[in-house]
Amino acid sequence: MMLYLFRHGKSHANTARLVTGTPADTLVDEGRRQAEAMQRWLDQVQLDADHFFTSTWRRAQETARLMFPRAEWRIDARLGETDAGSVAEWPLAEFVTQQPQFYRNNATPYPGGESHEALNRRVMNWLDELLAQQAADARIVVVAHSGPIACLIQHALGIGMERFPALLPAHASLTVIEYAHGGAHADANARKATLKGFSLTPAETAGPTLTPTRQ
After folding, report:
1. CATH of the domain at 14
2. Of 145, 129, 207, which Cα lies nearest the Cα of 6?
3. Domain that holds residue 126
4. Residue 215 is assigned to a structural domain of this protein
5. Share of the chain above pLDDT 90, in %
6. How far apart are alpha carbons 213 and 209 in whole angstroms?
7. Domain count, the chain
8. Which runs of consecutive H residues, i.e. helices, occur in the chain?
């Protein structure tokens, strides 16, 4: 199974350097331009996917519609960014000043929100369900956020959550993971994941490794 992971374009919360923002956060003009640039590249390569997923967050849904305007989307809350609770719209610098130890323990939840370990559990739940339901040759597009995508990358590379976030994709970039096993009879422990591309932007995504269309 091929998993094509797109991070949303730059948003108002990103521009203001907030902790995470909220599900109501939307794209800024730069973010829309980023998504449109990716869409032009996608038109050229004609990426062929079986299913399209995005989160409940507006910035992801806006990006999804700009990148794949003709797709039918499945919306799944498990693909949303970490719920930062009452500090979601705080400036990140202020939160780090007041909570200097927070990012040293991924089991610690945000005030009134969830922890990064909780984020990882729901993303892995989504992945397990997907792999059990999809054929081995399925191609899946996801438009989501840096947190969920980082969880999937670390899972593929065998990097533990104690190092989260080890790798963060750029805005409106593409990360590709290939799973060697899929379908209802796959053993979760035997699923081999290979990172095929990380944080690719339109100028970088013309290589043959991605093989976006079926041969």
Report:
1. 3.40.50.1240
2. 145
3. 2-210
4. no
5. 84
6. 11
7. 1
8. 12-15, 29-45, 58-67, 92-98, 116-133, 146-157
